[in-house]
Write a structure and sequence with these properties.
465 residues; alpha+beta; six-stranded mixed β-sheet; 45% helix; MPP/UQCRC_Complex; transit peptide; Cytochrome b-c1 complex subunit 2 like protein
Length: 465
């Protein structure tokens, strides 16, 4: 760069950063006053003429998120089609009546949109993310995928080839294997069904089975569409004009009941994974759901590094020189709470990981500690737990993914969406006496248990009663 050119650039920079170029404070204030401030919008919920529930929050984000929630999770599978929801997760971008699989993928990529499908035992959830400018075209694709799948035999066969990979990943994660075993041990009925297809069913699902399942469960009364970053009028109009679902008679109502049992899976693993649970709260019963959330935080607040707790746990170990406190410091064990909620019931208890030789003392110590804590719940413990629960829920709702997940659950389960103030008020109204009563009932109940690993020193469930 020659000297004259450098001086020219430097002179330009000095003029750009000159204080003479800065606006006076009064002028800046006037400019800010001319800007329209976008006010916060509350959630809006309605049921359109077809019977589909529509919920939305306009947050003015440049990215719009839409979720179509269908009550068609794995709990609704039958013995004849078990694993079909697992396959449906891979059929999100297969051909529809209006698009080929290639066209769906190409159009989504050209818009910079993302479409994926997740499932729980209760729901099958279609998630769409796109820019606000492309929402009309992206919603048309989402509606076509949900309303008009064709399930061409050759495409279904190709999609089924993905299931063994999913199963291999599932089997490589001990936590995932334990969680599936826990549901089989705890429930009778639909909630005992796995999120994954059985190996013997891979390749046996066909187009007719998929069509029958979709026709039976993809009905307006079982569907909710929620949006974040879109006006309610636009979402209502799009769903009403594009999503066409017809009623059907389901093969399974997904009914389940808590029926505690035990499953033990011997495996050559360096650690043992165990879960001990009682029946928890239904997500449909909001107050009970919140009671169990507070109780979970009370138990989580009683860490083992408390002096009194250490003394209690030491007494429960055969070797007093190897306390749980030192095992914890050496990362030789982990204990965390479980609080899982479904539409009609739930699971509440503890998830425990430890060395095979320590599991008998460890599991018994954890169960005893939980019983001791729930016998002596104080007002201060309840208030601390309330603050923790509110912080957790509000922080989750502060992210776009967390907000739309909470909206989807509320709209699908309750037909309305609670705002932050309503949530805080509901938690604040919970009483100590009620929490004590629920805690006492849970700790007296017969638990279900699942264990995975080298189980020669892991106690059976009847030894914990």
């Amino acid at each position: 760069m020659n000297a004259n050119r450098f001086r020219q650039i430097w002179s330009t920079k000095k003029n750009f950063f000159s204080t003479n170029k800065l606006r006076p404070a009064q002028t800046a204030s006037q400019a800010e006053a001319d800007v329209d401030i976008l006010s916060k919008q509350d959630a809006q919920v309605s049921q359109i003429s077809s019977g589909i529930t529509v919920a939305s929050v306009e947050n003015y984000s440049p990215i719009t998120r839409i979720s179509a929630v269908v009550k068609a999770g794995s709990r609704y599978e039958t013995p004849q089609n078990t694993g079909i929801v697992h396959l449906l997760r891979h059929c999100a971008v297969l051909s529809t009546k209006n698009h080929t699989a290639f066209a769906l993928t190409r159009n989504l990529e050209m818009m910079g949109a993302k479409l994926n499908v997740t499932s729980t035992r209760d729901n099958l959830i279609y998630n769409l993310k796109c820019s606000r400018d492309n929402i009309d075209d992206a919603l048309a694709i989402l509606a076509d995928v949900v309303s008009n799948p064709t399930f061409k035999p050759w495409e279904v066969e190709e999609a089924s080839h993905m299931l063994p990979t999913d199963l291999a990943l599932h089997q490589s994660r001990p936590e995932s294997v334990l969680f599936e075993a826990l549901h089989k041990a705890a429930f009778r009925g639909g909630l005992a069904n796995s999120l994954y297809s059985e190996t013997f069913m891979i390749g046996k699902h066909n187009s007719e089975m998929l069509h029958n399942f979709v026709h039976s469960h993809f009905t307006p009364s079982k569907t909710a569409v929620v949006g974040l970053g879109i006006s309610h009028e636009d979402l209502e109009k799009s769903v009403g004009g594009l999503v066409h679902l017809h009623g059907g008679s389901p093969d399974s109502d997904g009914a389940s009941k808590f029926a505690p049992g035990e499953i033990r899976i011997e495996a050559d693993l360096p650690l043992v994974y165990t879960a001990v649970v009682a029946e928890g709260a239904s997500a449909a019963k909001r107050k009970m759901h919140e009671f169990f959330g507070v109780l979970q935080n009370i138990l989580a607040g009683n860490h083992i590094d408390d002096v009194q707790n250490i003394q209690l746990l030491v007494k429960l170990l055969k070797d007093p020189t190897k306390t749980l406190f030192w095992l914890y410091l050496l990362n030789e064990y982990q204990v965390s709470g479980l609080n899982v909620n479904y539409s009609d019931t739930g699971l509440f208890g503890a998830y425990i990981v430890g060395q095979p030789q320590d599991m008998k003392s460890l599991v018994k110590a954890v169960v005893t500690q939980m019983k001791e804590v729930t016998k002596n719940i104080t007002d201060s413990a309840v208030e601390n737990a309330k603050h923790k629960l509110k912080a957790k829920l509000l922080l989750e709702a502060d992210t776009s993914d967390g907000a739309i997940a909470a909206m989807a659950l509320d709209a699908s389960m309750h037909g309305k969406v609670r705002d932050d103030k309503e949530l805080e008020r509901a938690i604040n109204e919970l009483k100590l006496a009620d929490i004590k009563a629920i805690a006492g009932k849970v700790m007296k109940a017969k638990p279900a248990m699942a264990s995975l690993g080298r189980l020669h020193h892991t106690p059976h469930v009847d030894e914990l009663l």
